[in-house]
Amino acid sequence: MSASAEMPYFIKPSLNLDAEAKRAAYEQAQMAIDANLEGETDRILKMATINSVLKTYLPYYYWAGFYVVKNGRLSVGPYQGTLGCLHIEFSRGVCGKAAREQKTQIVDDVHALDQGSAHIACDPNSASEIVVPVFNPQGELIAVYDVDSTQHSSFDEIDQGYLEKILEKHFRLSALE
Ligand code: SME
């Protein structure tokens, strides 16, 4: 699969936020997610809803979506953005590292990483990213949540804090089908 640098008409370049605006956007997104997922247990429905709300509120979310653990590798789940890679081995990319280490990864400049091994470029417009591991109530890794921006250094500990909290609340601390 070859990735084109052309940005489709329905996707806009990312806009970074300062810390205050970022916190305000996450607070609003969190409230919308909690209100919409009240009582829901279906994990695909939760992934699709969380992803849609976050991408709507955060203007630097260019590609955002889940890679779910399936048959010993990561396979693409609910996402928004340009065409994502379908499968990612645990040994490759930022997503693979987050899955292996079960720890959030933040990369300020993905082009500085070794391409094909440390980073997989599904879309060359991506410049920075965050990948957060997702666990079920048994503490097992079920997915990673991957967000890419076309700007450098879009993600920091504010993103990490909110994303870990949202994903923990709706997957690790809630009933799942
Ligand atoms: N950034 C990822 C690949 C997935 S795409 O960005 C959608 C990685 O290197 O793990």
TrEMBL record:
A Pfam family annotated for this UniProt entry = GAF_2
Which SUPFAM superfamilies does this UniProt record tie to the protein?
GAF domain-like
Q: Which domain of life is it from?
A: Bacteria
Q: Where is the GAF domain?
A: 66-166
Q: Which Gene3D superfamilies match?
A: 3.30.450.40
Q: What name is this protein filed under?
A: GAF sensor protein
